[in-house]
Amino acid sequence: MPDSGLSLDEECFCEHLEGFNFLQGVTEGQWGLHEDESVKWPNTVIWVAAAARGESPTRFYLFFDLKHYPKTGPTAYLWDPASKSKLDLTKWPKGSNDVHMVFRATWNNAAALYAPWDRLAAAGHPEWPVKHAGLVWKPDHTIVNYLRPTYELLHSDDYHGA
């Protein structure tokens, strides 16, 4: 078998990008890979569509750290592709209930989404695997297990815009 030059982690991630569930989300305009040659493995940027809310953007970009993927879950923060840096905290999604909780720009210096599916947030919550059993990362998950609940929040009534 020829050497692809990719790590096993990256090969697995690439396979997940070619999987039905990821491609279905791309086709339906729910998310997509943002090509940026300055972003190198184990990082990638994926956009997630957001419901129209006034002057708010219709997509948000997530800068992922995929180190040891999928054995270890991803972690991501909101990204500004124009400045190639963390999205200004004033531009993060706003809302109530779970939207307010997950997109808390005040948590941990906005280093990640405060969500059960995020590696950084989940690490500090040993109760989450029981409390949020379907959302906490497991090694058999794919990137869609991160994107889908994020997309659903950005299309919920609790999302008020940026």
Describe the secondary-structure layout:
Layout: H1 8-17, H2 20-27, E1 31-34, E2 43-49, E3 59-65, E4 75-80, E5 85-86, E6 94-95, H3 97-102, H4 119-123, H5 128-131, H6 144-153, E7 159-161
Antiparallel strand pairs: 1-2, 2-3, 3-4, 4-5, 6-7
Verbal overview:
The chain is α+β, with helices and mostly antiparallel strands and 162 residues long. The chain has one domain (8-161): Ubiquitin Conjugating Enzyme (Roll). The protein contains 6 helices and 7 strands. It has helices spanning 8-17, 20-27, 97-102, 119-123, 128-131, 144-153; strands at residues 31-34, 43-49, 59-65, 75-80, 85-86, 94-95, 159-161. The strands form 2 sheets. Strands 1-2-3-4-5 form a 5-stranded antiparallel beta sheet. The protein has a two-stranded antiparallel ribbon with strand order 6-7. The termini are far apart.
What structural category do the secondary elements indicate?
alpha+beta
Q: Helicity range of the residues?
A: 25-40%
Calculate Rg over CA atoms.
15 Å
**What is the helix tally?**
6
Terminal CA distance reads 48 Å
CATH topology category name: Ubiquitin Conjugating Enzyme
Strand content: 15-25%
Give unreliable regions as ranges: none
- How many structurally independent domains? 1
Give the SSE string. Answer: HHEEEEEEHHHHE
Q: Major sheet: order of its strands? A: 1-2-3-4-5
CATH class: Alpha Beta
What coarse outline follows from CA principal-axis ratios?
A: globular
State mean pLDDT (0 to 100 scale): 94
- CATH-derived architecture: Roll
- Major sheet, described briefly? 5 strands, antiparallel
Number of strands: 7
